[in-house]
Design a protein that fits this description.
The protein has eleven helices and ten strands. By secondary structure, the chain is of the alpha/beta class.
C-alpha cells in the first residue's frame, strides 16, 4: 500500500534565487498525482526535495510520521527505501544489459540470492513489457524501451512511492499513450503513491487523480483532477488549454493590464475545459483503491455543476 506525503510550508532557494515558497499539499496514499508548470518553475527540484536529495530552507515533508527535512543521513537513507524514481532519460548504465541494469539495486541494497534476483527482475520486466529484451544494451533500444527499463529498475525494491521526472520527454505521442496506460495499470497492480512531473497536457488530463500547478514561485493550485480541469483560475486555464492569452508569457512575467486585456478577449462560453475521459486500468486488472479517488473527484465535479446551475 502506498504512503501519504504531507508537505507544509516548503521553501527552496539557490542562493538569493527563490525557486518556490510556502508550498503545502498532501499526496494521498496509493493515488496518482501530477505536477505541472511552465519550464523553469522548479518541478524537478520539488521531486529531488521530496526524496531528500535537496534540503529546503523552510517547511516540512512528513512521511510515516517522520519529517525527512530533519532526519540524519542514516535515517534518511532508511526513508529513501520507500521511494522508486524514474529519471528523464531512464538513467541506465550504458555498459550493462537491461537485465543487469534492473538487477543493480537488488545486488547493491539486498542480500538476495541470484535465483531470487532473477525471479524479481523477470517479474518487473514482465510488468513493463520487456520480457525477451534482457540481453540488450541501452544503446540498442528505443527511448520508450529505455523508459520502461528505468521503470522496471525503479520497481525492483517494491517502493511505496514512485516519482516520475518527465517520463514522456523525448517520446512520440504513440509511445506517450502506451506509457500512460502502463502507469495507470501499474498503479492498479502495486498500489503505490505516484507523483509525475510532466509538461504533457493530454497526460495530465487523462492519468491522475490529483493535479498541481507551479507558477511564479508558488503552488497555484493542488487538488482532485476534476477541480483543476474545471478551474476558473486564469493561469490554470491557460496552461491546460495551451494558449498564449493569460499570465504565462515567454519570460513568465506579463503586465497585469495586458493579462486582463487578453483574458477579456477570450470567449469561454463553450467552456473549453470540459473533462477528458479518465484513462482506466486495462482488461484483467482488478479495481484498485484509487477508484475511491475517482468517485470522490466525480462527486466534487457534480457538486460544482449543481452549484453553477
Amino acid at each position: 500500500m502506498g504512503v501519504e506525503i504531507c508537505v507544509e510550508g516548503l521553501t527552496k532557494s539557490f542562493g538569493h534565487q527563490v525557486i518556490w515558497q510556502d508550498v503545502s499539499l498532501t499526496l494521498p496514499a496509493g493515488e496518482v498525482s501530477v505536477m505541472l508548470g511552465p519550464s523553469g518553475t522548479g518541478k524537478s527540484v520539488f521531486l529531488k526535495t521530496l526524496v531528500g536529495l535537496l534540503k529546503p530552507e523552510r517547511g516540512s515533508i512528513t512521511i510515516q510520521g517522520r519529517d525527512i527535512t530533519k532526519l540524519r543521513e542514516h535515517d534518511l537513507y532508511e526513508v529513501r527505501k520507500l521511494f522508486g524514481v524514474l529519471f528523464q532519460d531512464g538513467a541506465l548504465f550504458g555498459s550493462m544489459n537491461l537485465y543487469d541494469n534492473i538487477a543493480f539495486p537488488l545486488r547493491e541494497h539486498t542480500r538476495k540470492s541470484e535465483s531470487e534476483i532473477r525471479r524479481i527482475v523477470l517479474e518487473k520486466m514482465d510488468m513493463v513489457g520487456l520480457i525477451g529484451a534482457e540481453g540488450k544494451l541501452p544503446g540498442e533500444i528505443s527511448g520508450g524501451m529505455r523508459k520502461r527499463a528505468g521503470l522496471a529498475r525503479a520497481l525492483v525494491l517494491d517502493p511505496e512511492i514512485i516519482l516520475f521526472d518527465e517520463p514522456d520527454s523525448g517520446l512520440d505521442p504513440v509511445r506517450v499513450a502506451y506509457l500512460n496506460q502502463l502507469i495507470v495499470d501499474l498503479n492498479a497492480q502495486i498500489d503505490a503513491t505516484f507523483l509525475i512531473v510532466t509538461h504533457d497536457i493530454a497526460s495530465a488530463r487523462q492519468v491522475p487523480d490529483n493535479i498541481g500547478l507551479l507558477f511564479r514561485r508558488e503552488l497555484v493550485m493542488f487538488g482532485p483532477r476534476a477541480e483543476l480541469l474545471t478551474s476558473d483560475e486564469p493561469v490554470v486555464r491557460q496552461f491546460l488549454n495551451g494558449r498564449m492569452q493569460g499570465p504565462i508569457g515567454m519570460a513568465e512575467e506579463k503586465d497585469a493590464a495586458q493579462v486582463e486585456q487578453e483574458l477579456a478577449q477570450i470567449d469561454d462560453s463553450p467552456r473549453v475545459q470540459e473533462l477528458t475521459p479518465r484513462l482506466l486500468p486495462g482488461p484483467g486488472i482488478t479495481r484498485p483503491p484509487r477508484w475511491q479517488a475517482i468517485a470522490r473527484s466525480e462527486a466534487q465535479l457534480h457538486q460544482k455543476e449543481v452549484a453553477g446551475a
